[in-house]
From TrEMBL:
UniProt catalytic activity: ATP + protein L-histidine = ADP + protein N-phospho-L-histidine
NCBIfam families per the UniProt record, alphabetical: sensory_box (TIGR00229)
Molecular functions (GO terms): ATP binding; phosphorelay sensor kinase activity
The PAS domain, residue ranges: 79-150
Domain PAC span(s) in chain numbering: 157-207
Pfam family, any one: Response_reg
Protein name: histidine kinase
PANTHER family: HISTIDINE KINASE, SENSOR HISTIDINE KINASE
SUPFAM superfamilies in alphabetical order: ATPase domain of HSP90 chaperone/DNA topoisomerase II/histidine kinase, CheY-like, Homodimeric domain of signal transducing histidine kinase, PYP-like sensor domain (PAS domain)
Modified residues (4-aspartylphosphate): D513
Native organism: Bradyrhizobium forestalis
Amino acid sequence: MKLRGLLTLALAAQVVVTAAVFLTSDLVTGTAEFGTAQLIALLASAAVAVLLAHLCTRTIETWQQERTAEQLAEQAQASAQMMQAVIKTALDAFIQIDESGAVLEWSFQAEALTGWTRQEALGADVVDLVVAEPLRAAFRQRMARLVPELSDTPAGMRFEVTLVHRNGERILAEAAGTVSRIGERSIINTFVRDITQKRAAEEQLIQSQKMEAVGQLTGGIAHEFNNMLTVITGTIEILADAVKDNPPLATITKLISEAADRGAALTSSLLSFARKQALQPAEIDVNELIEELAKLLLATFDKKIEIATKLDRAVWLAYADRGQLSSALLNLAINARDAMLDGGRLTLTTCNVVFGVREALAVGAGYAGDYVGIAIADTGTGIPQAILERIFDPFFSTKEIGKGTGLGLSMVFGFVKQSGGGIKVASEEGRGTIFTIYLPKAETSTLRPTGYDDRKIVGGKETILCVEDDREVRHYVTVQLEGLGYKVIPAADATEALAIVAEGTPFDLLFTDIVMAGSMNGRELAEQMVAARPSLRVLFTSGYAYDSLHAQGRATMGAPLLRKPYRKAELARLLRRCLDTAVDSAGDAIPTPYSVQADVEAFLRRQAAEDNGKTRSRK
Ligand SMILES: Nc1ncnc2c1ncn2[C@@H]1O[C@H](COP(=O)(O)OP(=O)(O)OP(=O)(O)O)[C@@H](O)[C@H]1O
Ligand SMILES: [Mg+2]
């Protein structure tokens, strides 16, 4: 438009000038003929025309140049804005550097990822900002190789790097980089993504899948094995009683009994590891448990090992299986002892912790929330980085053959996970190791019960409805119970038990296996019976607990559980515990006390038997 206007103006000006020139020359010469004056006028007009044309061309050229510059500036601004928008919207951090490593651009996600602000980062050396001191030289070498490599791959490259946050935390990152050339300069553009959490989750998943696979395998076998052991450990006492006046035979029964104990310890570890152990979670005062444990360790460990406790007096109650927790802590303590053959210090610590999702994930705990932490620290040999990943694997042991089965930490791991908790290990070679287990905080607190003697075998005269689907175990339990003075009504499954109840046969306690063949399991049977008779005492037994039962929370409805295989003394103790349990005004049983002593003693007995067994087998 502008161009046409200008040309029209120039043309009109030329016509006016030519007409004026002719008119003036007519007036001056007084004639209309073409003479010198007209020639001069025509030349003057032509000169004006040339001048005008020149002027027009200049104006047009300048105007076109301005327009192009304007357009270029607009385009540059649009593309810069677009780039900023992409950088800002990207989930990943954007870092732009030159060949020397100096930072040219640092997005706000980069600020969040590394802890360094844009202002601090611009112009600084990227390696100094995000690479740990000892790795810087190697990283620079790697970067020098990266530039030519990137230049040869226009599509860019993806690689993993370990970076460090300003606060020293390690960040595992995935980076995608490209190189662009501006004149002689090479500019490196990288998008960086934090994959620390993702990797931790993947590792957890792989670990739990691995554990699950081995668990499936061992769980089923251990279940059957437990039933057999229940018969052996139970009946051997009857035999021992019968041959006590015949020393050679008495020695043999003792050997069988010890072997059965070892078998029981092994299946128990396997079940724990497979997370199929029949757990009976309860509220635990971890300080009390650790104080008792510390006393026992002090009495049993070599004096070269100093034992210290650092207990948080305001620690919450934890929710877990007490017996299993003492075994887990003992396993950790024994590992610590074995790592301090020349002496050292074992420190037991308790504390409250509140986990966010990230922290919970890092220790493999079920969910964000409140946990009770128990740490066992030693000043021993430490664990080499190379084997750190494998220590929880079943049967992984660095101890010499016959010294360790490699099931200790597997048991701890399985137990902690099955309890909904987590575990963390920090170790430095030559300096020592800290294992920290996190257990879920108990939701409520209950009355602390009063004294109870665990060790005396006491029978009774009450009637017990005994439901057990394994014929041999049923027979054995009936003999045991009758031996303790009880009257027994045996039943092979839930249907048979309900039929007995329907007949109106009186009984005082239901003693039932949890996992049973048939349409109803032990828990469902007990629920149905308790619904009809709320004050009914129930004692469960199981060698195996399905996850689905535990998923429902309290697999045993708060009733005690006798873990298979069991001995007469344990059976007698738990029966009296159930039958003598006072009932509060709401009809709920008031819990009886627990002593870590019995568990620890049993554990140490098993260890001693195991050691004896190994010594013998080596001979
Ligand atoms: N506190 C520790 N210090 C140094 N190394 C340890 C520590 N705890 C565990 N380990 C290492 O982890 C391995 C596995 O431990 P784990 O308790 O599972 O088996 P174990 O102690 O060898 O045998 P088991 O406990 O079955 O008798 C050990 O052999 C040892 O190498
Ligand atoms: Mg061990």
